[in-house]
Design goal:
GPCR_Rhodpsn_7TM; G-protein coupled receptor; 75% helix; receptor; GPER1-like; Rhopdopsin 7-helix transmembrane proteins; single chain
Length: 333
Amino acid sequence: MWRCMVYNETDNSVDLRLCQDFGLILSVFSLVYLIVCFPVGLCYNVLLVVVNLSNKVTMTMPDVYFVNIAIAGLVLNLVAPIELLGPSFTRWPMWEYNNELYITLLILFNISSLVIMYSTTLLSLDYYIERALPRTYMSSVYNTKHVCGFIWGGAVLTSFSSLLFYVCNHVSTKIIECSKMQNKEAADAIMMFIGYVVPAVAVLYAFVLILRIRKESTPLDQDSGRLDPSIHRLLLASVCVQFLLWTPYYTTLLVHTVAGAPGSHPNKQHLTTYFFLRCLSELLAFSSSFAIPLMYRQMNKNFSHKLQRLLKRLHCRDQSCPHERSAVQQVVT
């Protein structure tokens, strides 16, 4: 199983053993992820979405972006078990999937990655706008909700161009239109540029602006309407973690784009190493679906209060809760 099918009995036993060791390592990592990270990420992503949507009145601009990231994380949670229990990640796969399912999983994975990266990027830019121009409503919750809708639409449209290359790479060359588009490297190049290079440049630019404005103390810094200072630490940590977990995956796309199809490489040991690193980088990318909601839960001071409010509301059921009436009065005033 795994990628050792490229070897036979006449191959060097050292290379075959290396392939089997890589397959065993991936199998163990996949199992650990499915037992520990998958349920934790699923629960915390659902909790993040439910708690914030049940407290819409108190949601802030960063909350909307993190809800968007959590929804994309749920999509990754949907893809992860199917992918990790398949033949690419384990020596004992539970099922074999065809090209159609492979392409579907790949497109869902690409859409989620684009949504996560661009939500993080726009969060950085909107945080700068909120710091520089408070109370202008340019980065309001209402506008952010529409921006998140555009992020999903843009991710789907961007993935559609890659979808054409992937589909044509798996269909018969008898189709004239596809015979000229059987180039998986082009699809990886599109994802590398749009999904990583553009967000990385935008985040770097946003952080330069944020650092510049933090050095310039103004009377507006005492404005009570500004974002909680803990949001800055959460933003910095989430951006660093996102790029740390997704950079290896996009690096493998860059290698594939520059070096060409790995299957054409004559050295089978290099081929095995490439596939191992590719699968390991995807596993790290899947890990972002549980790392971010955990960070949000620990670093957002208001989340615990929202969760307690939701639990009290569920406890009250249909009765009118006193704490709800006081909270609404505070918001109105």
